[in-house]
Amino acid sequence: MPDTFPPSSGSPASGTRPRRNLLADPARFAREVLEPVRAIVGERGLITDRDAMQPMMVAWRDNWEGRVPLVVMPASTEEMAAVVALCARTSTPVVPQGGNTGLTGASQPHGDDTEILVSTRRMNRIRAIDLDNDTITVDAGVVLQTIQETAREHGRLFPLSLGAEGSCQVGGNLSTNAGGVQALRYGTARALVAGLEVVLPDGQVWNGLRGLRKDNAGYDLKQLFIGAEGTLGIITAATLKLLPLPTASATAFLATPSPVTAVAWLRRVKSLLGENITTMELMERRCVDIAMRHNAAIRDPLVERHDWYLMVEIADQGEQAALEARLLAAVEAGLENGELVDGTIAASAEQALGIRRIREGAPEGQRLEGASYKHDVSVPVSQVPRFIAEANTALAARFPGIRSFAFGHLGDGNIHYNPIQAEGGDKALWQSFLPEVNRIVHDIVARLGGSITAEHGIGRLRIEEVPRYKSAVEMEMMRRLKQCFDPQNLMNPGKLLREAG
């Protein structure tokens, strides 16, 4: 029997896998992993130089950093399957990575050379477009913006849209069930998938690339891998749903007295505009101020200051003037009923872009304001005002001077509640408050029937908190799924679910 790295010493149900530095025996690692992998992917598919792999080891936010002895970049599903099968035989843990734009550390390896990183960056083919079926089939490593542009070239829309779309890869988008600014109308990534191709933890390939709208033949297996953060297998390709490309769109920046009036106007505008609403973003005044403070290109669209704002986008087939008239009528109704107090509708694409810059500039500027506490939470839309009010009150009482900073997707109840340290305070001191701030905020979310992670996922960031907010039954169901697919706990270990032991 060939000498292999030892399998987990824990029972299969435990998921325990003692961490072993793969370079503890360099000759053995080279013989059993490095050279066989080289034979599969070739020199172009390997990175062993520490400096060259460093950009893939570091997250762009929150200081997640890892260390691995090897980065593997398969160029095809066949190569990916062969690499994963080899890792299964040698009990070598694998961390899948796409564009490395995640926000919870899910695609960062641990810092102890106990894993190898497998990147999909070379798997970047557009495989097929079926305009009669309104689907596009792509490799997992295709950049989201490339899919959007390809769809547009064919007169179609792929509506998943988020800040990192110029660099994130669709495999990562699906593995984290990304949301984005148009989820109100089109849903999260989960809603846009017709089929998947997945390399399972033992190296088998499941080809579920069926572009069907209806398939009631048993479990909907693709949904198991969407949002699983690479812990059940590696998505290698997807068949995605395309939609008609809107011919008209309109963007508005509106002032509203409070989150309560914002929700009231949202209810009204749904009845007036229906599914034409693609985006409904809420933000408080501090978000606008900080965006302008740190980006000279951002201007306040309104003359007077207000406490709360809405960024609204609508789209439809038809004439531009007719769509703008419908939005104007909805705004006027809001002004008459006190749900809105001011506003402007963009008169050009350039003005619309200027409005979007405010929303994009808020989180970018926040990073320069000192310690902040980032929460990607969701509650029922009806509970958004109560959540913000209760969280602000509780944190102000416990941490005098803390600055509220709330923005996000009002239309689906996903609020990025990111309070910032007191102005001029000691950053290190305020950073030490993070666990208590998280507990206060997330306890309120749970009490209101919400989720502590709406669209960013669990990764490493929330892994210790999840058991507090999920029932024992839910946690056991998740563990059983993990054990069923990955009994050795080799696929992205220590993410989404805590390792036992």
Automatic annotation (TrEMBL):
<dbReference type="Pfam" id="PF01565">
    <property type="entry name" value="FAD_binding_4"/>
</dbReference>
<dbReference type="InterPro" id="IPR016169">
    <property type="entry name" value="FAD-bd_PCMH_sub2"/>
</dbReference>
<dbReference type="InterPro" id="IPR051264">
    <property type="entry name" value="FAD-oxidored/transferase_4"/>
</dbReference>
<feature type="domain" description="FAD-binding PCMH-type">
    <location>
        <begin position="64"/>
        <end position="245"/>
    </location>
</feature>
<dbReference type="InterPro" id="IPR004113">
    <property type="entry name" value="FAD-bd_oxidored_4_C"/>
</dbReference>
<dbReference type="InterPro" id="IPR016167">
    <property type="entry name" value="FAD-bd_PCMH_sub1"/>
</dbReference>
<dbReference type="InterPro" id="IPR016166">
    <property type="entry name" value="FAD-bd_PCMH"/>
</dbReference>
<feature type="region of interest" description="Disordered">
    <location>
        <begin position="1"/>
        <end position="21"/>
    </location>
</feature>
<protein>
    <submittedName>
        <fullName>FAD-binding oxidoreductase</fullName>
    </submittedName>
</protein>
<dbReference type="InterPro" id="IPR016171">
    <property type="entry name" value="Vanillyl_alc_oxidase_C-sub2"/>
</dbReference>
<dbReference type="GO" id="GO:0071949">
    <property type="term" value="F:FAD binding"/>
</dbReference>
<dbReference type="GO" id="GO:0022904">
    <property type="term" value="P:respiratory electron transport chain"/>
</dbReference>
<keyword id="KW-0274">FAD</keyword>
<keyword id="KW-0285">Flavoprotein</keyword>
<dbReference type="Pfam" id="PF02913">
    <property type="entry name" value="FAD-oxidase_C"/>
</dbReference>
<dbReference type="InterPro" id="IPR036318">
    <property type="entry name" value="FAD-bd_PCMH-like_sf"/>
</dbReference>
<dbReference type="GO" id="GO:0003824">
    <property type="term" value="F:catalytic activity"/>
</dbReference>
<dbReference type="InterPro" id="IPR006094">
    <property type="entry name" value="Oxid_FAD_bind_N"/>
</dbReference>
<feature type="compositionally biased region" description="Polar residues">
    <location>
        <begin position="1"/>
        <end position="14"/>
    </location>
</feature>
<comment type="similarity">
    <text>Belongs to the FAD-binding oxidoreductase/transferase type 4 family.</text>
</comment>
<dbReference type="InterPro" id="IPR016164">
    <property type="entry name" value="FAD-linked_Oxase-like_C"/>
</dbReference>
